[in-house]
Design a protein that fits this description.
This is Cadherin-7. One of its GO terms (biological process) is adherens junction organization. It is found in: Cell junction, Adherens junction; Cell membrane. It comes from Pundamilia nyererei. This protein is mostly beta strands. Helices cover about 10% and strands about 30% of the residues. The protein is built from 5 helices and 45 strands. Strands 38, 40, 43, 44 and 45 form a 5-stranded mixed sheet that branches. The protein has a 4-stranded antiparallel sheet with strand order 1-6-9-8, covered by helices on one side. The chain has a 4-stranded mixed sheet with strand order 5-11-10-7, with no helix packed on it. The C terminus is likely disordered.
Length: about 800
């Protein structure tokens, strides 16, 4: 049976437990069979009842450890002891669970449990551990595993904090006493179920006597009535929260609360002056600003908005006042032109009224104010004014040059009454049809007029003061030109008249009309007739329809294009003007071949075509001619290419490629000589794209079949070269891509008749015979390098 002791008197309690049931609320029984904790049935027995023990031990299953222990030694937690432990060291105590070995340790011999680290209840409030007694030798448990809890006991080590601070709040100005402003809340991390460490009370440190705070709830209220925003609009409060119910030794925290007094409409508008005076020029334009006045309102925002109106004054309709929404100024506007000579001053009475009046503060009103405004008009030198701004005049189209049309008149509105001079704005009379008398203002014609070109003339007349030429007045004069009959009528359009060959006598072939540029007051009336010798022709006649149109009719039938394809009829047109004017217009009539419905198929003269070949035959002949021309061009081109000489003309660039090979020494280091292997291997396939007049960088050895080309190895050297040159000549004759110049190459070849034969290594690449080069070492120091390279080598090795 395992015993737990949670204090220094655990042994005494163990002895008392044998006599009386343990009545502490923190004692629990351990079920040895299961190892689970269960509440003792003897937790609250009658103290005088005789206990009945059932061979089980009473244990403490919950320990308390004070947090934030600052001692130098490990903090003693409790003791574990088993009934099996006889004190002979055979039992070992083992601790496991949360914080075992890292925070809590157990003496495996005595069972004493200690806390080795400083604990923080706010980080972890309790730890669940398991304890077991095992045999020291076999590590087998001698008691079932028991579980207990170590609770960290709280101390007041955390001050109250305001998680939402600092605070911003607002309350309307003029609020009554006790109006709620805002509620502040402080939290304390200490254990609220143990002691007073987390019980907080509130107080105000800064903000008296304007505000107060409720100690338990943290509600801030106004402490003074009728606080005026216009006097002071913001307060900064410091609120303290202290734990331990505010007792001495408690911890505290503070926060700031900024309280802003919001505006209400408790101030009426007031004009700074009861009388205002302004001066304006009489030349001020309509809708211009005359003056700006403002009524001062101590409120802000919508509570300071106001409307202005003109209550009374002289000159009704001359002025208007509106509110500038940005500045709340009253803007006085001019509605009618000013005239110093007519009225030189105006008096107005203006009222300003708040738009949004709060009924709670009507006692502070009235929320309006009035003032007087005097507007004085200042005289300016005004330009001349025409008696009639728009003058209308009429002139006949046939008026003679210098004919007077009418008169304009202007005067100086100022008291000086300066004389006036007149002139025409030539931008409105570019062709100078009119003149105006500078003194009298009489307008006359300067050129003949043409109504058909311009029926109305819009002139701008200047009236200039003689004393001050900068003062210029403007007037408009409209001159209408009256029409006379000076244009003869003509055809309305260019007519295209078609006459079918199968037309019958009396058939209408065209209806004509006329136009006249003139515009008589009674309207146009035109008369039509055939002019001159055409009046008695046998082909056509004209019928006047009496509605400003006429019809052209045929007198006969049987018209033929072959006989006459076109007829021209002179038509006389007379207007009804006074005097009457006329003109002769020619109507062309074309004879056409028409179908049965009278639709023209072909008109005009008949084209005579000779009988012969058809259109298809002509196209075939033309195609043959084009084909022959193309073939001739191809033949000429090919002949020119075949006759192109291989040797260039003298004046063109001629290049030579002379390669000399007459040096017997050098051996493998002789890289400037011509590659003789090329001459010895004449039966290779040559790339046509490779130039044949230079040494190839990498020769390709591929033998032709023996039937296609003779073998040159068996021929004498002179025959080999001769055959090689003839082969190259044949290739050049038939190869269009060969270079257009000769490639001259000279070879000094000793031939096979020499005793030493050829000393060049070029031929060694193509030989298939075995050769011993040891004799080179006997030829002296000049051939020492060759002897080193080729001496004592495998005869089958090919040297390059």
């Amino acid at each position: 049976m395992i015993w737990w002791c949670c204090s220094g008197i655990c042994r005494a309690l163990a002895l008392l437990a044998l006599l009386f049931p343990l009545q502490e609320r923190s004692c629990w029984g351990l079920n040895p069979s299961s190892g689970d904790l269960e509440k003792s049935p003897h937790s609250d027995p009658d103290p005088w009842d005789v206990p009945h023990r059932n061979r089980r031990s009473w244990v403490w299953n919950q320990f308390f450890v004070l947090e934030e222990y600052t001692g130098n030694e490990p903090l003693y937690v409790g003791k574990l002891h088993s009934d099996v432990d006889k004190g002979d060291g055979k039992v070992k105590y083992v601790l496991s669970g949360e914080g075992a070995t890292s925070i809590f340790t157990i003496d495996e011999n005595t069972g004493d449990i200690h806390a080795t680290k400083r604990l923080d209840r706010e980080a972890q409030a309790y730890y669940t551990l398991q304890a077991q007694a095992v045999d020291r030798l076999t590590n087998l448990p001698v008691e079932p595993r028991s579980e207990f809890v170590v609770k960290v006991q709280d101390i007041n080590d955390n001050e109250p904090k305001f998680p939402d601070g600092p605070y911003l709040a607002g309350v309307p100005e003029m609020s009554p006493l006790g109006t709620m402003v805002v509620q502040v809340v402080a939290t304390d991390a200490d254990d609220p179920t143990y002691g007073n460490s987390a019980r907080v009370v509130y107080s105000i440190e800064h903000g008296h006597p304007y505000f107060s705070v409720e100690p338990k709830t943290g509600v801030i209220r106004t402490a003074l009535p009728n606080m005026d925003r216009e006097t002071r609009d913001q307060y900064v409060l410091v609120i303290q929260a202290k734990d331990m119910v505010g007792q001495m030794g408690g911890l505290s925290g503070t926060t700031s609360v900024t309280v802003t007094l919001t505006d209400v409409n408790d101030n009426p508008p007031r004009f700074a002056h009861k009388n205002y005076q302004y001066t304006v020029l009489e030349s001020l334009l309509v809708q211009s600003v005359v003056a700006r006045i403002k009524a001062v309102d101590a409120d802000i925002g919508s509570n300071a908005e106001m409307d202005y109106r003109i209550m009374d004054g002289d000159g009704p309709g001359m002025f208007n006042i509106t509110t500038d929404e940005d500045t709340q100024d009253g803007v006085i506007m001019l509605l009618k032109p000013l005239d110093f000579e007519t009225k030189s001053s105006f008096s107005l009475r203006i009222e300003a009224t708040n738009r949004n009046i709060d009924s709670n503060f009507l006692s502070l009103g009235p929320f309006s104010d009035t003032t007087s405004v005097k507007v004085t008009v200042e005289d300016v030198n005004e330009p001349p004014v025409f008696s009639t701004p728009l003058s209308k005049m009429v002139v006949s189209e046939d008026a003679k040059v210098g004919t007077s049309i009418g008169r304009v008149s202007a005067h100086d509105p100022d008291n000086s009454n300066s004389p006036i001079r007149y002139s025409i704005d030539r931008n409105t009379d570019l062709e100078r049809f009119f003149n105006v008398d500078a003194l009298s203002g009489v307008i006359s014609t300067a050129k003949p007029l043409d109504r058909e070109a311009n029926s109305v003339h819009n002139l701008t007349i200047f009236a200039i003061e003689s004393h001050d030429p900068t003062q210029i007045g403007k007037g408009i004069t409209l001159i209408t030109v009256q029409d006379i009959n000076d244009n003869a009528p003509v055809f309305a359009i260019d007519y295209e008249t078609l006459l079918c060959e199968n037309a019958i006598p009396g058939q209408v072939i065209q209806t004509i009309s006329a136009v006249d540029k003139d515009e008589p007051l009674s309207g146009h009336r035109f008369y039509f007739a055939l002019a001159g010798p055409a009046a008695g022709n046998l082909n056509f006649t004209l019928r006047d329809n009496k509605d400003n149109t006429a019809s052209i009719l045929t007198k006969r039938g049987g018209f033929r294009r072959r006989e006459q394809p076109v007829y021209r009829l002179p038509v006389l047109i007379v207007d009804s003007g006074s005097p009457a004017l006329s003109s002769t217009n020619t109507l062309s009539v074309r004879v056409c071949d028409c179908d049965s419905d009278g639709v023209a198929l072909s008109c005009g003269a008949v084209a005579y075509t000779a009988t012969g070949l058809s259109t298809g035959a002509l196209l075939a002949i033309l195609g043959c001619i084009i084909t022959l021309l193309v073939m001739v061009l191809l033949i000429v081109t090919m002949r020119r290419r075949r006759k192109e000489p291989l040797i260039l003309e003298e004046e063109r660039d001629i290049r030579e490629n002379i390669v000399r090979y007459d040096d017997e020494g050098g051996g493998e280091e002789d890289t400037e000589a011509f590659d003789m292997v090329t001459l010895r291997n004449l039966n290779v396939i040559r790339d046509p794209n490779v130039r044949r007049d230079v040494t190839p960088d990498t020769p390709t050895f591929f033998h032709y079949p023996s039937a296609s080309r003779p073998s040159y190895k068996s021929l004498p050297d002179n025959v080999v070269f001769r055959e090689f040159i003839w082969e190259r000549l044949k290739d050049a004759d038939v190869d269009p891509s060969a270079p257009p110049y000769d490639s001259l190459q000279t070879y000094a070849f000793e031939g096979s008749g020499s005793v030493a034969e050829s000393l060049s290594s070029l031929e060694s690449l193509s030989t298939d015979s075995d050769q011993n080069y040891d004799y080179l070492s006997n030829w002296g120091p000049r051939f020492k390098k060759l002897a080193d390279l080729y001496g004592n080598s495998d005869s089958t090795t090919v040297l390059s």
